[in-house]
Amino acid sequence: MSNSPSKSPPKSDSRLSADLRKEAQTAKGKAVLNFSRQLDQTQWWPEERLRREQFRFLASLLNHARGTTDFYASTLSHFETITPETLEDGAWTQVPVLTRDSVNAAGERMLSTNIPKPHGPTSEIFTSGTTGRPLRLVRTRFALWYWSAFTIRDHLWHNRDFTGTLAAIRDSAKGVAVYPDGGRHKAWGSSDNVFKTGPSISLNINSSADEMVDWLQRNDPDYLLTHPTVVASLARHCLDRGIRFPNLKEVQTLSEILPPGIRELAREAWGVALSDMYSGREVGYLALQCPEHPHYHIMSEGVYLEVLDDDNHPCKPGETGRVVVTTLHNYAMPLIRYEIGDYACVGEPCPCGRGLPVLTRIHGRKQNVLILPTGETRWTLLSSEDIKEFMEMAPIRQYQFAQIKENAIEIRLAIARSLTTSEEKQIAEWTKSKFGYPFDISFAYSNEIPRTKAGKYQDFISEIG
Ligand SMILES: [Zn+2]
C-alpha cells in the first residue's frame, strides 16, 4: 500500500524535554506538561495499540458511569460484566447511541455521584446550540487539563513560536472585546502553564472587515485564530485592497466546518498557511490537522470517535458517516457514544507515521444537508471547489443558501448593491446546476447575514424541518 505509514517515529519533541518555565511546577502546569509528554509518545503508537488502550479506558469509563450515574445505571443495565475484552468482542456495539435530546432529557441523571478525587473539582458550561435548548455540561479539572495538552499538541505540531502574539477573532458576546481596543491578555491561555508565551489579543467577531483590518494592522500579530467564514471575508477584503499583515505567520481556524478554497484564499491574500481544528464545546478536541497533510488526525487519547453508517456500522476509508463520540476522561458527566450531529469522511492511515486515525473531511450538521424532492441528499457548498466561481459573479460579501421549501431555495446575499436581472439569472442557473435540481430560486438582500447564537455563520441552512 503506497500510503501506509513508512517513516520511523522521531524522538520526542525537544521543546517538551527542555527546561520549561517555572510555572510548570504548579499542579496544573505539571499535569499539562505530563499529559503533553505522554501525547508526544502515543501519537507514534500503531493504530491497534491506541485502540487497545482506548478500550481499556472505555471499560473503566463504562463501569464508572454505570456505577455512579442514574442514567447509565439504566441504559447499561443489560451488560453482565464490562471489560476491555468484552467491549471489543462486540459488547460495545450494544451501547446505545446518545443524541443531544436524550442528554438534555436526562438532565441531572447524567451526572456522576462519585467522581474520583484525583479528577479534581468540576465546572460547568452551557452550549448555545442552534437546535432547541442549551445543553448543560459539567467537566472535571482533569478533563480540562487534557484539553490544554491538546492545545499544546496543536502548537507543537504546527511549530508555532510561543513568544509571538496570538490574535483571536472569536468572541461573540455583546460588549466583549469590542473595536477599537479589543481585549488584551498577557499570555496565550493555558499553554502559558508550560511554555512562556507572548501576549494574546482578541476582537469581537461581529466587527466589520474594515475594523478587523485596522485592529490587525495596529497590533501586527504573529498568528490569527478565527472562524473559517471570517478568514473568507477578511481575505477577500484584503485581496481587493492589497492589504498584507507583515508579521502574520499562520491562520488557525476552528468552530465551523472549513469549506474548500479557504486555505488557498489565505495563502493568496496573506502568503500564510492555514491549519484547521475540529472540536466541539461538549467534547473538546476531536481532531487536529496533521503537521504534514491537510487532513485531520483524531485525538484518540482524549476521545473514542466513531464514524457510523445508517446501520450503525463503522465506515471504511472513503465513506462518510455520522460522528459519534465518547469522551474518555470526563468522569463528572460521561458522554458515551454521543452523536454530535456532524458527518465525517474516514481516511487511510497517514504517511506521516502517526497512528492516530485520519478524517479527510468533516461535514456540517444535519441542518446543512440539502434534501432534493427526489429524497436524495446533497452536501451543498461545503464539499465543492466551485464556490469561487459563484463569488465572482457579483460583488458578494456574504451569502447563505436556504432551502425554504422542498422545491425552493432562497439565496440570501449581503452585497454592495442589488443584482441585475441578468446576474440573478446567472446565479439561479448556477445554483440549479450545482444542486442538480431545477429548484425555484428567489433572492433576499440584507447588509449582513446573521450569525447563530454561538457566533457561527452558516452558508447553507435547511428550513424545511
Ligand atoms: Zn499525519
Write structural notes for this entry.
There is one protein chain. Helix 2 crosses helix 7 (141-157). Helices cover 28% and strands 24% of the residues. The protein starts with 13 loop residues before the first helix and ends with a strand. Strand 17 and strand 18 form a beta hairpin. A twelve-stranded mixed β-sheet has the order 4-5-3-6-7-8-9-10-14-13-12-11, with helices on both faces. With 465 residues, the chain is of the alpha/beta class. Residues 1-6 have low confidence and may be disordered. The protein is built from twelve helices and 20 strands. Bound molecules: zinc ion (ZN). Residues 290, 292-293, 297, 350, 352, 354 line the site of zinc ion (ZN).
Task: State the helix count.
Answer: 12
**Unique ligands:** zinc ion
Category from helices, strands and their pairing = alpha/beta
Please report the total strand number as a whole number: 20
Shape: globular
Largest sheet: 12 strands, mixed
Low-confidence stretches: 1-6
Helix content, binned percent: 25-40%
Tell me the span between the first and last alpha carbons. 44 Å
Radius of gyration: 23 Å
What's the mean pLDDT score?
88
What fraction strand?
Answer: 15-25%
Q: Strand sequence of the main sheet, in spatial order?
A: 4-5-3-6-7-8-9-10-14-13-12-11
Detail the topology: elements first, then pairings.
Layout: H1 14-17, H2 27-42, H3 47-68, H4 70-75, H5 84-88, H6 100-106, E1 122-127, E2 135-140, H7 141-157, E3 166-171, E4 183-185, E5 200-204, H8 209-219, E6 223-226, H9 228-241, E7 250-253, H10 262-270, E8 273-280, E9 284-289, E10 296-298, E11 303-308, E12 320-327, E13 338-346, E14 358-363, E15 370-371, E16 377-378, H11 387-391, E17 396-405, E18 408-415, H12 421-435, E19 440-446, E20 460-462
Parallel strand pairs: 3-5, 3-6, 6-7, 7-8, 17-20, 18-19
Antiparallel strand pairs: 1-2, 4-5, 8-9, 9-10, 10-14, 11-12, 12-13, 13-14, 15-16, 17-18
Helix pairs in contact: 2-7, 8-9, 9-10
Zinc ion is lined by residues 290, 292-293, 297, 350, 352, 354.
